[in-house]
Specification:
Elements (H helix, E strand, L loop, with lengths): L7 E8 L2 H11 L3 E7 L7 E6 L8 E6 L12 E10 L3 H10 L3 E8 L2 E7 L5 E7 L19 E9 L3 H9 L3 E6 L2 E5 L8 E6 L13 E8 L2 H13 L8 E2 L3 E7 L5 E9 L24 H7 L6
Parallel strand pairs: 1-4, 5-8, 9-12, 13-16
Antiparallel strand pairs: 1-13, 2-3, 3-4, 5-9, 6-7, 7-8, 10-11, 11-12, 14-15, 15-16
Length: 309
């Protein structure tokens, strides 16, 4: 069993409008845009990162906004709901705030003894706010007060037709089963980074998801550095997984592999971080390009959708 993985690093999804996506995460949720860059493989598409002040691992939601992309179809073989931690007693205030920002499908419930507020993002993305005692420092620069601001990720759901092989994979990655009820099983990394919970929802009669706007593209797990990442890569390959070589993503190094349930997993390093190419006070303001796309700057700055109205 591995002990290098500490919980979530980031979650990356697809969107249909960069401007609407930016407005929702910065205005409605009050997160900080910590990086404005482009997709390594499709430089005419943004890669936008939202999180806490510095984009701490376990706080960062990222998006590839493909203009006017068709909406995805929910189903199995995907990450369903992505959940954020908020302070206790704040869900009513959050419900009012999200309603004012025209969030859809607002619904309160309780899972494993924790109160949560479910809602949809602009493309039908499934989210929840979960009340916890999380003491991580929030970002408060976008009009959400300290006493209710998002603290980072709480968890992510995996929607699967069968949980057996994926549950074994999570256990191999250092997760432990800590609760179960009906068709839900909760796993957590002991001593993790406070974004260390994965829930598996088993739905044997549900069709496979169709990826599109609002779908999670991949989910990334955090390791401290490149040495720990190489240890994880070797162990996964020894177990039979087909794992990519290490890829430099400028703000972290990444490896990828497909799970038995069909979900794309990434293992990402905590180093070097989002301040490697711009000062912390100005994260996410300038368009940052991977070196391979630097020669496209003039064209991209003309073509990419302005994020602010």
């Amino acid at each position: 069993m591995l002990n290098q993985i500490k919980g979530l690093h980031h979650v990356t999804s697809l969107a249909s409008s960069a401007r609407k996506n930016n407005a929702f995460f910065t205005d409605a949720l009050g997160l900080r845009r910590v990086k404005k860059t482009v997709n390594f493989d499709a430089p005419d598409v943004y890669h936008l990162y939202y999180g806490d002040e510095v984009g701490s691992p376990g706080s960062v939601m990222t998006y590839f906004p493909f203009q006017d992309a068709a909406r995805g179809r929910r189903g199995t073989g995907e990450v369903g709901t992505t959940s954020f931690s908020v302070p206790r007693g704040t869900l009513k205030a959050w419900a009012d705030r999200l309603a004012a920002h025209d969030a859809k499908s607002l619904q309160a419930d309780t899972r494993f003894g924790q109160d949560r507020l479910m809602f949809d993002g602009p493309d039908g993305d499934a989210f929840a706010l979960v009340e916890t005692d999380d003491d991580r420092a929030p970002w408060v620069g976008n009009g959400v007060s300290q006493d209710m601001a998002i603290r980072g990720f709480h968890s992510a759901d995996m929607r699967l037709t069968d949980d057996g092989a994926s549950a074994e994979l999570l256990k191999f990655m250092g997760y432990e089963e800590i609760a179960s009820a009906d068709n839900l099983t909760r796993f957590a990394v002991p001593g993790g980074n406070d974004a260390n919970i994965i829930d598996i929802e088993t739905l044997p009669s549900v069709d496979h998801a169709g990826q599109g706007a609002g779908s999670v593209h991949h989910i990334a797990f955090a390791v401290e550095n490149r040495a720990r990442q190489l240890e994880v890569r070797e162990a996964l390959m020894d177990t039979g997984y087909q794992v990519t070589p290490v890829i430099d993503r400028d703000y972290f190094w990444a490896i990828y592999f497909r799970t038995p349930g069909g979900i794309l997993f990434e293992i990402a390093t905590n180093e070097p971080g989002f301040d490697v190419d711009e000062d912390t006070a100005h994260l996410g303001e300038a368009l940052k390009l991977p070196s391979r796309h630097a020669h496209l700057r003039d064209r991209l700055e003309r073509q990419l959708e302005p994020l602010e109205a």
